[in-house]
Specification:
- This protein is mainly alpha-helical.
- The protein contains 17 helices and 4 strands.
- It folds into 3 domains: 73 residues; 94 residues, Receptor-associated Protein (Up-down Bundle); 241 residues, Receptor-associated Protein (Up-down Bundle).
- A 4-stranded antiparallel β-sheet has the order 3-1-2-4.
- It starts with 6 loop residues before the first strand and ends with a helix.
Length: 454
């Protein structure tokens, strides 16, 4: 092999016993370097170039030092595994991927499929199956966009020497930032199977909560849809014919009937205009940016609405605490974990409030004290966070607070649904009563007018 054709790669790999080692290897490219490591019985976790082509093996300090443990290789980077977890610029031997690899906004992956595949991958890795072979098993065994498109891409990049976290970031599909950050921490700490198992549990709980919310809204949405369709038919078909009959009688119509006839006339003659105007209004909102302004305004208002505000705050609290606890449990430093957990929250206003809390934490404030100033977290949960900080069990405390918030969300959801269903029934009963009264009043008036006077 000519020296000019070879390139040096720093690596971190797992041996047959599951021990993490680090060092350097030579190859023409990443694929050949990864193949060389596999021939030595090592499975590469990450593999990055550290020297230009043409340099001899003796130039590598890592080569001279020989394999080291995972913890030593992480400490050698100075700031450890979290230094570049969020930014892609770690100070270690290439733990973070190249800065040019930016997350592309592509299609979302079904959360349920991702949770199932993550749990299966964790089981295969825990059984000692190499990562590339584990991915191949998942690709051949599953269905859907995750197994047909996303996993084959990731498998190819892993086989070429990329780490799993780097492959996730390069994917055209959108993986949650929480997912990628936890995977990177698990790779660096040599605990990828355990981290993936926690990720699978996290995603399963998230998916279950979303499904419960959607299923609770199915009945009200179906009922309202049928009611809207029925009212539309009455106003556009029944009322115009009925109004023609009343017009022939020449009788003065009661006020409720006048309202109903006016609505029917407007819908039958200008319904298409109303629909076009509504579509144009929505298009203008979308393309002008005014829709974002309204969305931000509503996002702020919903946090303070009676009843709904509590439900929203509990949901956001669960998202933030569960994500933060998962990352801390995976070995991600608090500062980096805060940044990732903030991005996992589905509210711009809440993200801004949590970001201000993160700034106070970096300035030396306690996490519980900083979060108390956001106004988004309940007192009991913050007390558990404070105790967790004092006892050194912050990750466990955050997970407990998130679980309690999930239970509160489910109870609040049941309470809202218990009030919403009868409210919808009363609303529909009122609409039906108004329509029936408006149509019966002129008939009764005609009958009264036709009766002989005493």
């Amino acid at each position: 092999m000519g020296g000019a054709e070879m390139q040096e790669f720093a690596y971190q790999a797992m041996d047959a016993a599951g021990k993490m080692v680090a060092g350097a290897v030579w190859g023409r490219d990443r694929a050949s370097a990864a193949a060389s490591l596999r021939q030595q019985g090592l499975f590469p976790v990450w593999l990055v170039p550290v020297a230009g082509p043409g340099r001899g093996p003796g130039s590598s300090r890592l080569r001279a030092a020989g394999p080291v443990s995972a913890s030593a290789s992480v400490r050698a980077g100075g700031q450890g595994i979290g230094a570049g977890a969020g930014t892609g610029a770690g100070s270690g031997i290439g733990i973070a991927p190249d800065a040019a690899l930016r997350k592309r906004r592509g299609p979302r992956l079904p959360l349920r499929d991702l949770a199932r595949a993550t749990g299966q991958l964790a089981g295969l890795l825990a059984a000692g199956v190499p990562l590339d072979r584990s991915l191949a098993v998942l690709v051949s065994a599953g269905q859907g966009s995750l197994h047909r498109e996303a996993l084959p891409q990731i498998q190819r990049w892993v086989e070429s020497g990329s780490g799993l976290a780097e492959a996730l970031e390069r994917s055209e599909f959108r993986f949650p930032g929480t997912y990628t950050g936890a995977v990177r921490a698990g790779e660096s700490a040599g605990a990828l199977p355990a981290v993936l198992l926690r990720l699978a549990e996290f995603l399963s709980r998230e998916d279950q909560l979303r499904r419960e919310l959607r299923s609770s809204l199915i009945y009200p949405m179906i009922t309202l849809s049928f009611a809207a369709a029925a009212v539309t038919v009455i106003l556009t078909v029944v009322v115009p014919r009925f109004s023609g009959i009343l017009a022939d009688s020449g009788q003065q119509l009661p006020f409720p009937t006048q309202i109903l006839v006016g609505l029917g006339w407007g819908f039958s003659h200008f319904g298409w205009v109303i629909m076009l105007a509504l579509a144009a209004f929505l298009a203008i909102l979308r393309w002008s940016g005014a829709g974002n302004v309204l969305a931000c305004w509503w996002d702020r208002q919903r946090l303070t609405l009676p009843g709904i505000g509590l439900f929203v705050r509990l949901t956001l609290q669960s998202q933030f605490f569960r994500t933060l606890g998962l990352l801390l449990n995976s070995g991600v430093p608090l500062s980096t974990a805060l940044d990732t957990a903030i991005r996992a929250v589905d509210s711009p206003s809440a993200q801004e409030a949590f970001a201000q809390a993160a700034v106070r934490v970096r300035e030396g404030a306690s996490l519980a004290g900083a979060l108390r100033q956001t106004g988004l977290c309940d007192g009991a949960g913050l007390e558990m966070v404070r105790v967790g900080e004092e006892t050194g069990a912050l990750a466990a405390a955050l997970q407990n607070v998130a679980s309690q918030a999930d239970q509160d969300v489910q109870m609040a959801l049941k309470t809202v649904m218990a009030w919403l269903e009868p409210a919808i029934i009363l609303l529909l009963a009122g609409v039906v009563a108004f329509v029936a009264l408006s149509m019966l009043l002129p008939v009764l008036s005609l009958n009264m007018a036709g009766m002989p006077q005493p």
